[in-house]
Q: What sequence folds into this?
């Protein structure tokens, strides 16, 4: 009898989790597909995150932001996978060179703001531009666009200090702006250099 | 605040993530500096572009159906047959592990049937251990029923132990009062204790090293199995048993105890 009640408890947990988590599937998939750059991998990532979220659902504090919590889990899974792959060949620590990369890229490519905007960009252009960002910059740019996800939560998901999130986000958005310019120009929203 | 300082904070300023003082400094600068104001405007646009993009993406129906089906199956008790599980079962690594496990199982069966001595329970050793248990903990339970051990082992670390299990099946809750352990028959002990004050954890086939440092849920909150954190942990083997006792410091309430014989694994 008690076994049956335990099974019922687990079943209830399944329904409650599904009811609360499934509405966030689109946002999770949107972030996943840009993190992985591949639809199939994105589906696997979302699925992994959902299963892990369910496993640790008891630890989730009801009344707080479930979407943020699930995205944090998903980003953790993804970045751990990336780290494992990156750990294979001996490489220079990213942290030691990122400041240099950021500054160098900015000073080399920084242009005065023309600031006609990107209002009419197509979603696929945005997707391509996002894909051009290094993953360390793409992650905070994507996560910061999710309503209700704080820098602290992004920092936890990325396993880095809040200050690092702040600087990567700043640079990430600058890089995104540069990546978007060719698309904006192609639909004549920005002047090409030399145009009169 | 100058331009280069302000630029670093522009994204955080836009996302309302700065402390009051820095926020005011950036605001003051942006109001005076046209270039930084334009940069801020671009940050806002870029943030909106990405947010709009994310809102425009829809998860494939197949993915939604698959995940929903998993939890529906879970809810209707058909969890094991879920599609996610079947997909896992199709994975190469899973097949390799399954094959290795089958080979090990065959060897284990050969060993058990042909080579292992018959499992006998050493009643004298059990009595001796119980004498130790009696002095240190007010409750003790043990089962040699493998199915029961597996059932209990469902409540692993990080899961809340289930009090309703006390008194069920092999375990008989006699009532409230001081601890009193009696040997009913070999491998089956009756414990007497106030169920409401017992938190139970099951450690089966784990070494002391594996258990130490784990988080366990106690009725006083989360605790680490570590002597430094106010919990003492004892473990010993003998008479074909592994006993692991988890108790709080002397004079305090018992946290939990379990003994599962290796033969029950």
A:
């Amino acid at each position: 009898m008690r076994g049956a009640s335990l099974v019922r408890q687990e079943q209830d947990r399944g329904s409650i989790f599904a009811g609360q988590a499934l509405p966030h599937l689109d946002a999770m998939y949107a972030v996943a597909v840009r993190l992985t750059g591949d639809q199939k991998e994105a589906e696997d990532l979302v699925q992994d995150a959902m299963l892990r979220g369910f496993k640790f659902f008891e630890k989730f504090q009801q009344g707080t932001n479930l979407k943020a919590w699930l995205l944090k889990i998903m980003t953790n899974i993804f970045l751990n996978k990336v780290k494992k792959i990156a750990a294979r060949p001996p490489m220079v620590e990213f942290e030691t060179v990122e400041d240099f990369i950021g500054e160098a890229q900015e000073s080399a490519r920084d242009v005065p703001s023309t600031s006609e905007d990107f209002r009419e960009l197509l979603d696929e252009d945005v997707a391509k531009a996002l894909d051009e960002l290094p993953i360390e910059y793409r992650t905070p740019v994507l996560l910061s666009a999710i309503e209700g996800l704080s820098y602290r939560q992004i920092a936890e998901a990325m396993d880095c200090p809040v200050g690092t999130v702040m600087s990567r986000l700043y640079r990430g958005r600058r890089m995104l702006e540069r990546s978007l310019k060719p698309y904006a120009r192609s639909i004549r929203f920005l002047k090409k250099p030399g145009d009169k | 605040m100058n331009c280069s300082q302000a630029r670093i904070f522009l994204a955080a300023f836009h996302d309302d993530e700065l402390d009051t003082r820095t926020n005011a400094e950036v605001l003051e600068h942006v109001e005076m500096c046209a270039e930084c104001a334009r940069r801020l405007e671009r940050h806002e646009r870029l943030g909106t572009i990405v947010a709009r993009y994310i809102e425009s993406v829809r998860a494939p129906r197949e993915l939604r159906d698959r995940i929903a089906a998993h939890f529906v199956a879970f809810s209707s008790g058909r969890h094991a047959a879920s599609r996610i599980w079947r997909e896992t079962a199709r994975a190469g690594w899973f097949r390799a592990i399954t094959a290795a496990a089958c080979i090990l199982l065959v060897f284990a069966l050969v060993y058990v049937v042909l080579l292992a001595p018959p499992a006998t329970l050493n009643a004298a050793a059990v009595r001796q251990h119980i004498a130790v248990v009696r002095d240190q903990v007010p409750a003790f339970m043990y089962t040699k029923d493998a199915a029961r051990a597996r059932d209990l082992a469902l409540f692993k670390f990080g899961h809340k132990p289930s009090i309703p299990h006390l008194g069920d099946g092999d375990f008989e809750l006699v009532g409230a009062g001081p601890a009193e352990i009696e040997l009913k028959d070999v491998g089956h002990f009756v414990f007497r204790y106030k169920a409401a004050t017992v938190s139970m954890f099951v450690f089966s086939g784990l070494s002391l090293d594996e258990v130490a440092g784990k988080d366990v849920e106690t009725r006083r909150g989360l605790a680490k199995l570590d002597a430094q954190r106010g919990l003492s942990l004892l473990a010993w083997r003998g008479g074909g048993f592994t006993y692991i006792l988890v108790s709080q410091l002397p004079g305090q309430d018992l946290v939990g105890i379990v003994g599962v014989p290796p033969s029950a694994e």
